[in-house]
Amino acid sequence: MATRKTSKKSELATAGDHLSTAAKEVGTAVSHKIEALGDAVSASMKKARKRATVQRDKVQRKIDGLVKMAEKQLAKAQSQLSKAGASAEKSVRAAEKKLEATKRSTGRQLSALQASAERKAKALQKAVEKEAKALKKAMAVKPKVVPAKKAVAKPAAKKAAPAKKPAAKKAVARPASKKSAKKSAR
Predict the structure, then answer these.
(1) Does 185 fall in a domain?
(2) Where are the alpha helices (DSSP H) in the chain?
(3) How far is residue 157's CA from residue 150's CA, in Å, rounded to a whole number?
(4) What is the DSSP annotation of 123-162?
(5) What range defines the domain where residue 159 resides?
């Protein structure tokens, strides 16, 4: 007897096959979705990196600009400082020169004043000495004493002699006083 092979699968086996096929398809679909998500995430990461790079470059350019501006300001400040220092040094040198010139001129004026004062003092001293000599000479001249005999015999001579003596004293005293007045005026 020949038996017939049944090609019929049980419904359970068929359902299992369908489930396995469906599972494979779901797995494929999920892996496609995961790949798509990965690609999307990767693309968004690339975009984010690109944006970050662009932002970084912008910030770097701004920083570079600020650094350059600060360097320019620093250079400008240094040049102004050096100019101010040179100007101050020049002013100090000019003031020192002026001070030296003032010292020299003051020294010359002082020595000239000292010399002038010494000359005037010597001149006054000579004038005082001359006047003292003149006064000594005037005091040294004594009136002549007339003997008593002659006085009785000639009364007119007595009167004439005293008149001459004061005139002589006045004549000697006048030139001395004029000289002293002239010298003291100098």
Answers:
(1) yes
(2) 11-140, 148-153, 155-185
(3) 9
(4) HHHHHHHHHHHHHHHHHH--PPPPPHHHHHH-HHHHHHHH
(5) 141-186
**Helix segments in 141-154, DSSP class H:** 148-153
| pTM above threshold 0.85 | no
Q: pLDDT confidence of 136, banded at 50, 70, 90? A: confident
Q: Is 77 domain-assigned?
A: no
Mean pLDDT computed over 71-99: 94
Angle at 155 between CA 153 and CA 157, to 5 degrees: 105
Domain count, the chain: 1
- Radius of gyration of the chain, Cα coordinates, nearest whole angstrom: 69
Is residue 186 assigned to a domain?
A: yes
Residue 159 lies in a domain: yes
Give how far the C-alpha of residue 130 lies from the chain's centroid of Cα atoms, to the nearest Å.
Answer: 61
